[in-house]
């Protein structure tokens, strides 16, 4: 590794590690930041995504002894101005799916990078997803998969839920959890060396 600064992913999400690998990047360290993700009163979805991503990066930086590139991300699902939870129970997942059925919603990912010199840059990627009108049997089929557990909005696009999506505008990888175009641009624009074609 020589004198190259560390590259740290401030997320325990295996999906984000898999997506980074598509850019030819393997973090030197993976450190999850434990933050309260409760929205502030009246907080807009975009502001929440940016605040949480920046906060996760800063929390990990505070625990490191050496300078590093620290990348954090947080994904928020919003229907109008309503922020949907990360579903932890079947009841929460059912409420999310009922709200999303037949409607468009936004998936916003906040990206935040702290450079070795301590400067922090934060960006937002937004995709629009439209679910088909869900029949009861489809809801039961999806609930049975368990894929909704811990997922913002109660679904994971990389699994069965993709069969329920009628349209998607914007970045597919953003909905999975890490917008690759924006991530590559943010890293490259702030001095982290990347493979020229995004491949290992």
From TrEMBL:
SUPFAM superfamilies: ITPase-like (SSF52972)
Enzyme Commission numbers on file: 3.6.1.9
Reported cofactor(s): a divalent metal cation
Active site residues of this protein: 74
GO MF terms, alphabetically ordered: dTTP diphosphatase activity; UTP diphosphatase activity
Top EC group: hydrolase
InterPro entries, sorted: ITPase-like_fam, Maf-like
Pfam families: Maf (PF02545)
Protein name: dTTP/UTP pyrophosphatase
Protein source organism: Zavarzinia compransoris
């Amino acid at each position: 590794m020589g004198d190259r600064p560390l590259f740290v992913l401030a997320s325990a999400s295996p999906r984000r590690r898999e997506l980074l690998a598509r850019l030819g990047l393997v973090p030197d360290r993976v450190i999850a930041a434990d933050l309260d993700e409760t929205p502030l009163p009246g907080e807009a979805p975009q502001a929440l995504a940016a605040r949480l991503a920046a906060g996760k990066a800063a929390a990990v930086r505070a625990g490191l002894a050496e300078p590093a590139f620290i990348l954090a991300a947080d994904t928020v699902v919003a229907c109008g101005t309503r922020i949907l939870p990360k579903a932890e129970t079947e009841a929460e997942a059912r409420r999310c799916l009922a709200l999303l059925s037949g409607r468009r919603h936004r998936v916003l990912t906040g990206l935040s990078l702290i450079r070795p010199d301590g400067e922090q840059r934060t960006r937002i990627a937004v995709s629009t997803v439209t679910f088909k009108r869900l029949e009861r049997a489809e809801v039961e089929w999806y609930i049975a998969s368990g894929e909704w557990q811990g997922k913002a909005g109660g679904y994971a696009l990389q699994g069965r839920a993709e069969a329920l999506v009628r349209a998607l505008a914007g970045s597919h990888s953003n909905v999975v959890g890490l917008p690759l175009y924006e991530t590559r641009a943010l890293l490259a624009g702030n001095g982290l060396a990347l493979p020229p074609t995004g491949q290992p």
